[in-house]
Amino acid sequence: xxxxxxxxGKLSEAFSPSHIDVECESHMHNVPAGAEMHFRVVLVSDxxxxxxxVQRHQxxxxxxxxxMAGPIHALALHLYTVDEWAGQAPxxxxxxxxxxx
Length: 101
Known about the structure:
Elements: H1 3-15, E1 19-24, E2 38-44, H2 53-63, H3 65-69, E3 74-80
Parallel strand pairs: 2-3
Antiparallel strand pairs: 1-2
């Protein structure tokens, strides 16, 4: 099982999302080929109803505590309730670090 699949499974179990998209964006960064370190998560769940954005992030970090302590280097979170979801989340910016500049 890839780390992407592991993240998706944990988040799906914890939040019962109506939409989830977990994308490994490591290829966009200055990391070894095949690395799984940078992720973008779009998660739509009624579990976020009445929950402030900071608390939503904290809840996701708690579910992914083991991964955040180890293999995850960067995690872009786009967290919505069903009512907030417009069908699209912002795209990640291009990496400007390392030798990619």
